[in-house]
Please model this.
Amino acid sequence: MGTKIFVNLPVKDLGKSVEFFTKLGFKFDPQFTDQTATCMIVAHDIFVMLLTEEKFKLFTPKKICDATQSTEVLICLSCESREKVDEMVNCAVAAGGTTYNEPQDHGFMYGHGFQDPDGHIWELMFMETGAMSQAEMQ
Model:
């Protein structure tokens, strides 16, 4: 069995977050969903647990970061094309998210991103893996 990753994010309004990410095409696992949390399926082995702030506080003794003021984590997802990157960003903005910078075009890699309603930054990138030499990767 491969390793799975579960990213845990605090959210102010779980319903609003579910609505936002549903508009971006994400699905949720009802087995791990209740009024305090939901499990967003990103890929076969990648999940994002959206937890109400009250629920999130049960897992850490530290103060929750206000993602609209500070950044604790950058979430980066790969996309299959430049067009998919732009499509996801446009969809996020239409669903109530915001952009935080301009698209970045590095030739072999293209990226852009958005902030969700809680201010968490989601970067999206497309990389032409064959176009980059080993020297460029180091």
Observations:
- The two ends are 30 Å apart (CA to CA).
- The longest strand covers residues 5-11.
- The chain has two domains: 1-64, 66-138.
- The chain has a mean pLDDT of 93.
